[in-house]
Amino acid sequence: MMHSGLPAPAGAGRTLTLSILLVMLAACGSKDAVQVIPPAPVGVVEVAPAEVPIRVEYVGETAGVRDVEVRARVSGILLKQTYTEGQPVEAGQVLFEIDPEPYKAALDQARGGLAQAQAVLNKTKADRERMVPLYERGVVSRRDYDETVAAHESAVANVQTAKARVREAELNLEYTRVTAPIGGVASKVAQSEGSLISAGGNSGLLTTISQFDPLYVNFSYSEQDRLNLERMLREGALKVADDQPLQARIRLSDGSIYAGTGRVNFSDNRVDSRTGTIRARAIFDNGDGALLPGQFVRVILELGSMDGLIQVPERAIAQSQSERLVMVVNENNEVTPRPVKLGYASEGKVVVTSGLAPGDRVVVDGLIKARPGSKVAPTVIGAAGAEAPAAAEAPAAAR
What we know:
Elements: H1 10-35, E1 40-46, E2 50-71, E3 76-81, E4 88-89, E5 94-98, H2 101-136, H3 142-175, E6 177-179, E7 184-186, E8 196-197, E9 205-222, H4 223-235, E10 247-251, E11 262-267, E12 277-284, E13 296-313, E14 318-320, E15 323-329, E16 335-346, E17 349-354, E18 361-365, E19 376-383, E20 392-393
Parallel strand pairs: 1-19, 2-20
Antiparallel strand pairs: 1-18, 2-9, 2-13, 3-5, 3-8, 4-7, 5-6, 7-9, 9-12, 10-11, 10-13, 11-12, 13-17, 14-15, 15-16, 15-18, 16-17
């Protein structure tokens, strides 16, 4: 297209100049806005030494105080089950009935044998009473006398044997009514009604009764934990209650804490060479039956307390390749990274064994905004040492 060569209108030139000036002013304003961004607000805690309860936590498994197998003591046909599976039973309660008829017949036979033996005894006793005065007067020989006395003594022995057979038959008849040896909760039936039960075989197992009030919790702790505890006690760093058993609590699989508090009542006197651990056991009241044998739980042991420890919330800890860091705000409100070493941790708090001093302000909230060297607007949300101390537990690596 050919240009006409006519000059542009004067108004068009002024409009272009004004547009360029507006763009330049907008750019300058944007640059100034970036430079005046205010410091990022963060929440900090002021650390201070405090007395911290110390706890350790281990994996445990619940177990009944007594688990008893209920077995048939005589063979026969299982006629009847007289209890409800999974329900409490009392000691001495009848659980099963085995066909008693063969044992009633055996008892009658044993009683008949006893009557015969008793009749023989009565006769030999009378013979002996007649023989004694005759022998003393020399009417009968010594041989006849000895035979009469021996027959009487044999009859006495036979009566004793017959009485034992009667008692055995009575016991066998009683054993056809299988009773609970202990009180507890009965498990499912191992043999159905109508089955042939053998007292000496695997079919003799009828059910199992578990007594779980109180309840045991079995667990193991490492040899290193034992050495650490002994060292802290020897140095006096750990304060413990005198003449009181070690207290224990349970954390259930859903994370909740069991209401009852137990005590450690057993610790083995040897180390398992295969695992390097020591077996131990705690006992808990379980009157309401809230705990069942075979549950996997976390056993929390209250060891005592240590004074002068510094704690920070776990969310204040940052990971930097090979070390752990916290962000500390100095007196100029500048963020400084501080390498720290960690100790016990529990319930959202962790003990800092080195790297912090009393009065340091550690960033807890807004950690992502607290870049090293940047200025922040800190708000103190609490003094870590002044809060109600959370009990600390041994770190996972130590366990």
